[in-house]
Amino acid sequence: MRDPQPADFEALLERRRRLGQDLFDEVWEGVLHMNPAPHSRHGDVESQLHALLGPLARAAGLRMVGLVNIGDAQDYRVPDGALLRPVPDAVYLATAALVIEIVSPSDESWEKLGFYAARGVEELLIVDPEKKTVSWMRLEGSEYRHVKRSRLIELGTAELVERIDWP
Description:
Elements: H1 9-18, E1 26-28, E2 31-33, H2 40-59, E3 63-65, E4 69-72, E5 75-77, E6 81-84, E7 92-93, E8 98-102, H3 113-118, E9 123-128, E10 133-140, E11 143-146, H4 157-163
């Protein structure tokens, strides 16, 4: 929400917090992005990714987590999942080994790459349930490059596409 804020802005924020509607909100360089709950097929794919990636993450010494805040209170993103090493006990995490973004209609998943790169997120997984595609990327220098296989867990892009029961 850009300045100037509406007169009832604080009441709106409080109502969204009270109703649990702010779970997906993010702050991009001080600008609040109010994100709605995702499309229903998003949740279907998200639960499958936890089941598929969780055991592979544990075998690699990583921990699969759901919604987390990557960044700090003034600038953070809320990916749909992450692989961490070890799991910090904090509200805001500086980085992650891998971040998962599941595309919902009109979301900003692809606009977050620079943010994650600046925080040293090693790998990025963007899953699009509508298009039935998986984009697996690895941080090389300051940019993400598409890869066919993860260096973190024993899984590749083609294998993951085949294992997802697309909604």
